[in-house]
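# step 3/5: fold
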Amino acid sequence: MAKKKQATVPPSAVKFIFVLLIVVAACILVSRGVKQFFWTCPYFKIKTIAVEDPNLQFIARDDLAKYRGRTIFGVNVQDIQRQLAVKYPQVASLKIVKNFPDQLSVVAKKRYPIFQLLTRNRILTLDVNGAVVDNQAKLDAGLTVLTGIRLPSSYIGIGAIIRDERMTTAVKILRLFRATPGLSSMKVLKINLDSLSGIEVYLSDEFKVIADKDTLDEKIPVLGVLFSQGRINMAQLNYIDLRFNDPVLGKRE
């Protein structure tokens, strides 16, 4: 029986594999050299840490000082964002931006107080999204007081967001007032949300607007028209009830 011939690798294939290995090795060495260059080059060392918004100057630059002198390529911005978000819950949408070649920028929005919520012998100051910006506040006459929102007994920490139908309704009322001609310049002193079918919006200590949650979009503009036409004199009225087809005026005795 004739012996089978053993397969042989052509010299050209051996040469190709050898050259390929050399090229791969060279690419690895070059990539390591390039990476080493960028990671050690002084041009990419962080020199400046900027807080863009002047309203955010309370963010201590010391929190970021440890990153000064490091290569910008080695900074994990997600980790920094998480750390700052925990320390500064009074800011929203916080981001750390790498500005090449040598700057880190803090970009965020400050939460501005809009409401004060009276609950469980505590005064919470909230922003327009229901986020707690202060949980040991004193009453501020410049903010709208909210009552009737029931919160769990658990501790309400700064930065917590109150997700509640009554809170959402309060935000909607304030936005409708601000967007409605005849009402936009008015100060809303207090909103009592104990009953969503009989919400009480106080425009003065002795005058309130009564409305139903389900008809706010329809009735608040009507209220704006009445004020614009001078048909409402708060000095002579105790309330106006918007829950009926025609608003009901409650005159003072």
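# step 4/5: annotate
The domain at 43-110 is CATH 3.10.20.310 (Ubiquitin-like (UB roll)).
# step 5/5: archive (pending)
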